[in-house]
What does this fold into?
Amino acid sequence: MAPAEPAALVDLGKTTCRVRVGDRSASGHGSAGLAEHDGLEDAIAAITDALAELRPGPGPGPRPGPAPASLAAFVGGVAIGAAGAATVPDRARELADRVATASGGRAVVTSDVVTAHAGALGGAPGTVLVAGTGAVAIGIDPTGRIRRADGSGIWLGDDGSGRWIGQQGLRAALRAHDGRGRDTALREAAMSLAPSLDALPAVVGGSATPERTLAAFAPVVLSHAADGDAVASDIVERAIGHLVTTARAVAPADPAAHVVAITGGLVAHDGFAARLRQALVDDDLDVVEPLGDALDGAALILDNPDLPHERQVSRVDAP
It folds into this structure.
């Protein structure tokens, strides 16, 4: 009997789309989110572009020959965790329908936060705090009850996220520039983003993806905070406070489920990650290392419809 074709696993964020098929992986551009205008088409484009480098089959690396122009090669199934899916379940279902039809295999679509939770805690109850371009926490208790905090986007939430940190850094730079705020090394750092600081609002406002533009400045803020800049340090301290509040809001009441795993791009900054972990511990939460990532969670959800995460999943069987 021929071995089953491996599934295509997708972690579609606002900045990056990561994909894995078997032991091969690739990445491409992200999409603004399913809830955005043209979010469905943007998501499909990002997914197909990232998967274009991979075909199901043995051996590492892309298989030789022309890359598939669609999802038709991935009959082993496609599992997608997509930013924004939780707020627009109808679009998530439509994405699952279209992917299943295009691939000829089964498809599941859920929020990238749900796949991150499943991967980080292996399908067990607890809390996962995702701190990347956006910020959101999801908590699942032993009965399967799911709670979510923040993830409210660029205009109304994502407090403490990479976008928030970058935005606060640029605001501080402008305040230092025009005399409303304390001087900071962020002022000079921000000058590389626009012809002048006076032009910075137009540059950010004219971006097709302002959350990514703002988040790109977050590493600069973190670096200057680590170097002792008082303004940058204050921004980082407030970001950590926001993230702890978000995690605490969804932590299950059962003490046995008081575990928190942290994922997302901000964790890559060691100094920030260490301070965030300590702040969570100080708030009586048990911080654990993630067991896996969102791609591992996508695989788990695809093959296990009995997980408590299932109520957040759009699942379509092979046509």
Remarks:
- The first strand starts at residue 8 and ends at 12.
- The chain has a mean pLDDT of 89.
- The chain has two domains: 8-116+294-316, 124-290.
- The domain at 124-290 is CATH 3.30.420.40 (Nucleotidyltransferase; domain 5).
